[in-house]
Structure formats: C-alpha cells, structure tokens
Amino acid sequence: MRILQVQGNSGFGGSEISTYLLSKGLKERGIEVVVVIQPGGPVTEELRQIGIKTYEIDLLNKWNFGSTFKLINVIKKDDVDIIHSHLRNADYHSYLSTIFHKKLPLITTIHDFLFLDKNGCVDSGLYTRIYKRILENNFEFIVTISESIRKDSLEKLNIKEDKLINIYNCIDTTMFNKFSDQDDKTWKAKINWDENYQYIGFIGRMTRQKGHLFYLKAFREVLKKHHRTKTVLIGDGPLKKEIDSLINRDDLLKNNVITLGYQRNFYALYKIFDVVVIPSLWEAFGRVALESLICGTPVVASCTGGLKEIINDGQNGYLFKPQDVADCADKICKVLKDRCLKDIMGQNGVKTVIEKYDLPRFISEHIKIYEKVML
Question: What is the pTM of this model?
C-alpha cells in the first residue's frame, strides 16, 4: 500500500504538522508514503531528512492544470494506491488528477470549518459551490480533526454520516521530553525572565481569528489584580502592526508585553509559562492547547470549536465565553492566584494528552481508513 499525501500549504501550521506526523508515523509502520507539498516551507526538508520522498508543486491556483499534470506525473512515477489531500487547493488538484488520469481512491482531511473566509463568514460563491459538489461526490472518506468540525461538515455537506470520520489531531509527545537545562536558560534569557513575575503565554498567528486585540484588553484587567505578570506573544501575521501600535500606545501594556515574533522550536517555553491563553474567535482544533498540556501548563481558552473538546473546564484549564474580556481575565486570575490548582491542572493536562491525543492512536485510525478503501 502506497499513500500519496497532498499538502496544500507550505508553512508549519496545524495541517502541515499533521501531514508530517502522519507521513512519519506511516513510514515507521512500514507503509510507503510519498508527499506533494506547496514549495517554500520547512516541512519539505524535514520529511526528506527522515527518508520520505517529497515533491514540491505549486498548488495554490486551483485551476492551474500545469500543477495538476505535475501531480499526475508523481502519481504515475510512484504508482500510488490512495490519494489523501489536505486543504481545499490540494483537494481540487487531487480530484482533477483522477479526471485526467486514472480513478484512485480519494480521502481528504478537513482542517477547518468548511467554506469560511478569513473573517469567519461563510463564503457561498461559485468556487465554494463547485468545491462542495466535489467533496460530496468524489471522496471516499472525509476525515475531520474534531467533533466540532465533523458536525459542521455534516450540516454543510449532503453526504451520509458514515462517510465522515473524526480522527482527533495529535502531537508527538516524545518531542516534549527533550528539553535541556540549556534550553531553559536560553528561553529565560530571551524573555528576560524574573522569578518574581508570573508569565502568560500566547502562541498564535496574528490574525483576527486568534483574538489578540481582545486578549490585550483582558490582560490589562489581569494586571489590575496581578501586578507582577507579563505576557509573551509568539507569532507573526497581518495584524502585527496594529497589535504593536496598541501595545506601544499603552504604558501598562508596553511594560508587560513581550513580543517574540515567529519562532520555531520554542517548546521549552511552555514549561516556563504559568498559564497559556488561547482566545480564538473560532478554532477547528487547538494544537497549542495539547502542546501546553503535555508540558504540564494549564490552558485558559475560548469555549469554541475543538478547544471545548480538549479543555475540561476546571480540570486541565478553564473555558471562557468567546470575546468576553471579564470572563477571560477572571479565568486567568484563578490560575495565577493558586499554585496548587495550577499543579493539579498541569498533571491532569498531561493525562489528557496521553490518553486521547497520542500519535500511535492517530496513525492506527488512519491506517483503518486506508485499509477500508483498499478492500
């Protein structure tokens, strides 16, 4: 059985990490994997380093048939049995390859709420209606990454329920057991760590979805009760200038917000943070929550999407009403004021990830799907 993974993005976000972990895990189980990925990102080299054949093809233009035929050449050359695509543009080209070449089983993973634009509004344009038909009529199975996404997909697509299979995303827990004392010292130096302060982490691309502007209002409220608190923002994006401007205009924020920009391999910071906040307006899953929990750091998150499935309110963190400044600040303060509670939540968080979001389960559930379509 040879699986072609087609990844429509080039960064190192949730869908790309999932594709990497899935490909790596399948290879370790003795299943042949080939990957096609959008050019210019870090995942290509990481896949090649672990011995996975990886091609870069520009898939961003849905109607660039030149890209489709490059994909067909990979399918022919590597004689793949199943095509598993990730993200809309990859779904288009994977589907077109079965039209212009030979019919192969198609599987897709839905990594976000269907048909949303960048502002979280449903797009009902022509391309969306075409894409909807393609999903409904041409894919053997549609994998979702959370129950929230599965329910959303079931509402928006005219398909049988058994065609939708939820497989929770995962993390590779072994990555979080490798921190050295030097890693700890390095990151503490980067944030000018002070043992007399508590630290709130916020990891996320600077977009409207992730809720930075709302969170900074909540953080101001936190500072009224916990004066010796700083927040560390990790990430970059289109709202960076607006966020920086807001911080620089406000002395209270300017003195207590640390912005690190985009970072790779920052995971040792999770153990330095007292709490991690995820104030997303909507969130399909919430990989940052898993990364924080496996490091024993509680999470305070918006009660939305996949986050409300990961966070057991009061057990491994707290949930707050989306965009409710007072509720968000109050839940953060509950963690900051009670060291014993923080430790208990940290222990529960590690247990959550190991029991429900581990890599071996993730791989096994995908193999079951591949075996079904090969029957």
Answer: 0.93
